[in-house]
Design a protein that fits this description.
The chain has one domain: MetI-like (MetI-like fold, Orthogonal Bundle), CATH 1.10.3720. It has 11 helices and no strands. Helix 10 runs antiparallel to helix 11. The longest helix has 35 residues. The chain is globular.
Length: 233
Amino acid sequence: MEFLIDVIGEAAEFLRDSAGELGAVVGLTLLVGGIATAVAVALGVPLGITLGLGRFRGRKVILTLVNVGMGIPPVLVGLIVLLLLWSDGPFGSLDILFTPAAMVVVQILLALPIAAGVTAGAVSSLSRDAVEQIAALRLGVVRRGVLVARETWPGITAAVAASFGRVVSEVGAVLIVGGNIKGETRVLTTAIVQEARQARFGAALALGVVLLIIAFVITGSLTWLQSRERADA
């Protein structure tokens, strides 16, 4: 018990004395995670709507790939991206390995299947009458997609929340392609690993609390929007 009390005290000291360093880590976490989530949602939601509504050749194959992507180990994605971005790899000329850009890329790949899969599930739950009514309007692809998105807004909000949760909690892939370089590619999850490895448990706990607060505020806000939309429906 005394050990835990000491760790909590060290966590409080870390929060008090490391505001500048902590701010940089939190800022990079939000920047990388925010960009990755936005891109993944922008690509994944339209794909999910298409998969949820469409009946086209290859749909089952794409759905299978999406479902596999939702459960693929992050470290494997990180390894693949590492090989692609390595100096001798196909995209080595981009010279973005061990930079925030590489971290964004790997997080997009992790979040995209979740955004698409959750959206597809929400669209598939639309009643048959609703689908027939939308089809009868003979709208263009974009306008039909917007209409479907409005009808399934709670589900799409869940897709956004799940995508953000995936990227903000991920450590293995971003550690592989980012390198956890202090002041450059260190985010909250990799910082927690670093501090825990060096037995600085108070600092690790403090970083974990900050990460938990961020996740709670953002996903909680999205959940509130989702609940409000359902109540208004």
